[in-house]
Amino acid sequence: MFFLFPKKRRDYLLNEPLARVNQWMDDNQPKLIRFLQQLVQEDSTRGNEYKGQAVIIEKCRELGLALDIWEIGKETTEHPYFYSDRTEFIGNPNVVATLRGSGGGKSLILNGHIDVVPIGNRADWKIDPFSGEVKEGKLYGRGSTDMKGGTAALIYAMEAIKACNIILKGDLIFESVIEEESGSAGSLATVLRGYNADGAIIPEPTNLKIFPKQQGSLWFRIHVFGKSAHGGTRYEGVNAIEKAIQVIQAIEQLEKRRNASIHDPLYKNIPIPVPINIGKIASGSWPSSVPDLVVLEGRMGVKPEEMVEDAMVDMDQTLQLLIKEDPWFNQKPPTLEWFGARWLPSTIEKDHQLVTILQDSYKNITGTDAVIEASPWGTDGGMLYHAGKIPVVIFGPGTTALAHDSNEYIELEKVFIAAKTIVQAVLQWCEIDELS
Amino acid sequence: MFFLFPKKRRDYLLNEPLARVNQWMDDNQPKLIRFLQQLVQEDSTRGNEYKGQAVIIEKCRELGLALDIWEIGKETTEHPYFYSDRTEFIGNPNVVATLRGSGGGKSLILNGHIDVVPIGNRADWKIDPFSGEVKEGKLYGRGSTDMKGGTAALIYAMEAIKACNIILKGDLIFESVIEEESGSAGSLATVLRGYNADGAIIPEPTNLKIFPKQQGSLWFRIHVFGKSAHGGTRYEGVNAIEKAIQVIQAIEQLEKRRNASIHDPLYKNIPIPVPINIGKIASGSWPSSVPDLVVLEGRMGVKPEEMVEDAMVDMDQTLQLLIKEDPWFNQKPPTLEWFGARWLPSTIEKDHQLVTILQDSYKNITGTDAVIEASPWGTDGGMLYHAGKIPVVIFGPGTTALAHDSNEYIELEKVFIAAKTIVQAVLQWCEIDELS
């Protein structure tokens, strides 16, 4: 017989500590808010991640976790999954803090990124983007929703487990990584340093939905060529902007074709499951001249089950068809380049135990059914999945719409719900040692 | 009886001095080349026009012409035809040099601009852009074709008249103006200073064709708005680039309609008589974001007989129709702005005496018929025509294709032909005093 205790006994083993943990969480909400505030108050944009990590390290020391702090090195930057233009990581370490289990349980990674995107135009912010100001249940600031709110929920979950003297069987591995916003080099480094587990939860801003599948994405740059001429004799030239419109329209058709082939019910409420976005266009320097070059940049979504390389082939074939069919493109072929950041996709089954445990926990905490969907964006989950073969679920308190925007905020109520849901999932996944 | 002399006598009165002038021109070609070289060697880009004017002034003094040198002032900058973003003209004067006639003949303006466009990318030049180097009958350098070659032809024509002691009845007014490349403020200033005449020749690069009609042009800037979103949920935003494509396509249709209404035989060999050129597009700052703003800039051609205001209305109505028909544009209307430079159109009849005299002269010099066409670009002629009511013909030795380009050059043989054609036209138009 596999189970040492009958179901009832197991339920008691879970329920009694869970009740304690929940009670502690209810009693200590100001702790969580204060910690999140501290975290948001540190400007941990790219190159400044150390400021956020210092807050994390201090907290993990206080909790008595086994700390590992290191800077990304060659083993990462020379790895084929390293997609970044950054070469300098000195002073901005990754942090992993482990709560070692007593043995026999499944291990779990709790992963959050410490880097935040730039604030953009300061004038668009009504409050100081690094104030962490709380107003009407919302905590404001860059990174509050993406994803310091999620990270704070993880820390709070661990703190509750420690404070309630609960001993887990499986290892609980908390990762505070850099470089998520620029291509997952931080999470790649954790895998290469040997951190692996039976599952991982990443509290990116899902608005408390559960994402077992994540879209990947990669950046492309296309040069479209024309022939310059004076605007008054524009017929003597070829306007690169006109030719770029043809390229954009071909890409729109490609997006249609790629999405028409997706029938996954997790995408049923998503108008375009894996979009291709044209994010930048630049051409010309003089109103009276026919421009001879357009530079397009964009983001291509990658299906959860798709290989990045296959998505690349799709885009390349679209351009090849244009080159074949259009005499001008034949003479001056547009060039395609994959540059900058890249996020790998990831997928686990909808009924994977990590998903169902989170589902149950969410229902238990909120009384309502969790929404299960596929993510419209990439996360570090793709890297953990591809580099570490780790099953990943994304579930967090923030909301996509606020991420990267001015006046970013997070609803504190959702951070509590996320923390409570995650703590219950941890107790079930890693299991509680009877000695607790 | 109107004519004092029978036709034969008049022919002799023209032909004998003309023969002398032509002989002088043939004998003094190195003078012209040396002068043009000096002129090209001075970098007279905007703000540096004084360098080129110094060469002009020195030469006009040598020829004993009545000089007027002045800086553009308020009478010009506050005039409704002043289309420029420049406010500072100190140190960069206009120059007018008059060869006073003995009376009784028609006056003629010979107008050339001293300003040249920037060299662009120095690396694209095979020779020093201010060398004035001569190779195989071509003189190289910025401004050689646009339009120092033409100006040198004018100076050479006047020098020949002076050297051959020919006295004209009508005034010959040579204008070396600034600011042609940026909206004709220099030529506007000449009119406002009182310079007027019965006709004007401007030797812009027509490749020795005769242009009695000139297209005008003006610059527009359109802001097209979108709604930002993350690229992964691009359906939550409105991509300003997609909306800008709609605007561009509506402008293409407008261009078609405007040109379909032109039946002037002077345009019969011109694929698009008055083009609308999209010269610049800029949008977005991040491949993964849906851009919420596109800025388009372009040049709209104005028909020779059209009022600039009517062309503006055409463009505005095109946008208004989009705003009416498209719900998004209705909500976020694109904005239209007319900015920077503007060149007024100009037109005289194909059989105007200034045209026929140039035609005859050209045939006399080259033995072939001149091509009469309408210009694909604006010149200072539009300003002389609108501000001064002066009939204008454009006829010059350069070629459009080389203007504003790297490795600009002019064929010296064409400068000679232009100078000889112009000198004969001057003698016929202004008439020769019998005392000559």
TrEMBL record, chains A, B:
Keyword check for Transferase:
no
Q: Which InterPro entries match?
A: ArgE/DapE, Bact_exopeptidase_dim_dom, Peptidase_M20, Peptidase_M20_dimer, Peptidase_M20A
**Domain of life per record:** Bacteria
Write the record's keywords in alphabetical order, separated by commas: Cobalt, Hydrolase, Metal-binding, Zinc
Q: Does the keyword Ion transport apply?
A: no
For molecular function, the Gene Ontology terms on record are: hydrolase activity; metal ion binding
Q: Which residues form the Peptidase M20 dimerisation domain?
A: 214-320
Q: Report the cofactors.
A: Co(2+); Zn(2+)
> Which family does the similarity line name?
Belongs to the peptidase M20A family.
NCBIfam families registered for this protein in UniProt: DapE-ArgE, PRK06915.1
Q: Which PANTHER family match?
A: ACETYLORNITHINE DEACETYLASE (PTHR43808), PEPTIDASE M20 DIMERISATION DOMAIN-CONTAINING PROTEIN (PTHR43808:SF25)
- Entry protein name: Peptidase
